[in-house]
Specification:
- The structure is a single chain.
- This protein folds into two domains: 3-227, Spore Coat Polysaccharide Biosynthesis Protein SpsA, Chain A (Alpha-Beta Complex), CATH 3.90.550; 231-302.
- Helices cover 49% and strands 12% of the residues.
- The protein has ten helices and seven strands.
- The protein has helices spanning 16-29, 47-57, 72-82, 102-110, 128-145, 161-166, 177-183, 209-227, 231-262, 274-301, and strands at 3-9, 34-40, 61-65, 87-90, 116-120, 157-160, 189-193.
- It has a seven-stranded mixed β-sheet with strand order 3-2-1-4-6-5-7, with helices on both faces.
- Helix 5 (128-145) runs parallel beside helix 8 and helix 9 (231-262) runs antiparallel to helix 10.
- It is elongated.
- The two termini are 28 Å apart.
- Bound molecules: uridine-5'-diphosphate and magnesium ion (MG).
- Magnesium ion binds at residues 92, 94, 96, 199, 204.
- Residues 8-10, 12, 41, 69, 71-72, 75, 92-94, 96, 155, 204-206 line the site of uridine-5'-diphosphate (UDP).
């Protein structure tokens, strides 16, 4: 099969008939063999009934209904697991992404040998309250990941099949699939300017907290990729450094006191200087950091995926 199109959706009953019809038209025109996987992420409206009807009329259309609303990442993960096409396309259900982009995305994966091609909504039809923070967010993601993409969170993306089988999208990590792909060793990541349109029906499913959560996720993803297999390198070095500096300060304070006493001067109490307390706190924090690293090391040592490397080729 040439293509799998995965559409995660939550309360999109008005859009999906038009969307699937449009996708099917594009597929037919280009002679692609395909499947459309509609993942209903616990919709409360009529979406599932619409999907059932669509699947009856066109046997390239499949539906998966999740028990409740788990979020876009879970919906994508679920779709990825059952995808069978050589090239896998993800697309939002709200008609903001255009199915007309599919043939070119397919060609870039097949002929230009990209592992992943991400859409870039160069001209966006979204409110400014969303486009401004998005720019910041993308800049941060570029710096943290080293991947030169303009639009990490674009819903329209194309993947070589292996990529989606080798990564696990969880939580709200759908914003960082290119980063997950890079960490899994798929580094040929491309970008294509895509047409974006205003939402035709319904409302956006992500509120303002997308930005806070987005930044937190970026922190965890870059931390995890760097240190999750060796947490002691982070906590241990920080802890040891802090402990040693504080220890030296304490020794310094002690030695000063000793010389005061020896020379017969009236020595101030050690506890009368603020440096004593700063150094004391430093030693305690240093020990705690070291311990945190040690515990994290024990946990990662016994994790079932401590050796999750993937063999690329063998002869
Ligand atoms: N979506 C989903 N589960 C959710 C939230 C959203 O499957 O919990 C789907 C939604 O139906 C749409 C896509 O994810 O197909 C993108 O959502 P939306 O258009 O609301 O995001 P925006 O375009 O505002 O970033
Ligand atoms: Mg949208």
């Amino acid at each position: 099969m040439d293509l799998s199109v995965i559409v995660p959706l939550y309360n999109e009953e008005e859009s999906i008939t038009e969307l699937t019809k449009w996708i099917a038209d594009v597929m037919k025109k280009n002679n692609f063999s395909y499947e459309i996987i509609m993942v209903d992420d616990g919709s409360k409206d009529n979406s599932w009934n619409v999907i059932q009807k669509l699947a009856d009329d066109n046997n390239n259309i499949h539906g998966i209904k999740l028990k409740r609303n788990y979020g876009k990442s879970a919906a994508l993960h679920c779709g990825f697991q059952s995808a069978e096409g050589d090239v896998v396309i993800t697309m939002d259900a709200d008609l903001q992404d255009s199915p007309d982009e599919i043939p070119e995305l397919y060609r870039m994966i097949k002929d230009e040998h990209y592992d992943l091609v991400s859409g870039w909504k160069q001209k966006r039809y979204d409110p400014i309250s969303k486009t401004m923070p998005t720019k910041l967010f993308n800049a941060a993601a570029r710096v943290a990941s080293g991947i030169k993409l303009h639009d990490f969170n674009c819903g329209l993306k194309a993947y070589r099949k292996n990529v989606i089988k080798d990564i696990e999208v969880y939580g709200e990590m759908h914003r960082y699939i290119p980063v997950l792909a890079k960490q899994a060793g798929y580094t040929t990541i491309g970008e294509k300017v895509v047409i974006h349109r205003a939402r035709k029906f319904g409302v956006s499913k992500f509120g303002i907290n997308r930005f806070i959560n987005g930044f937190l996720d970026l922190l965890s993803i870059s931390f995890i990729s760097r240190f999750s297999k060796k947490p002691m390198h982070f906590f241990g070095s920080l802890g040891t450094l802090l402990f040693l500096i504080s220890l030296m300060a304490i020794v310094g304070i002690g030695v000063t006191k000793y010389f005061y006493l020896k020379s017969g001067h009236p020595a101030p109490l050690i506890t009368s200087t603020p440096y004593f307390y700063i150094a004391l706190t430093g030693m305690i924090l240093g020990t705690q950091l070291f311990l945190a690293g040690f515990l994290a090391e024990l946990i990662s040592r016994s994790a079932s995926n401590r050796n999750d490397y993937v063999i690329d080729k063998k002869i």
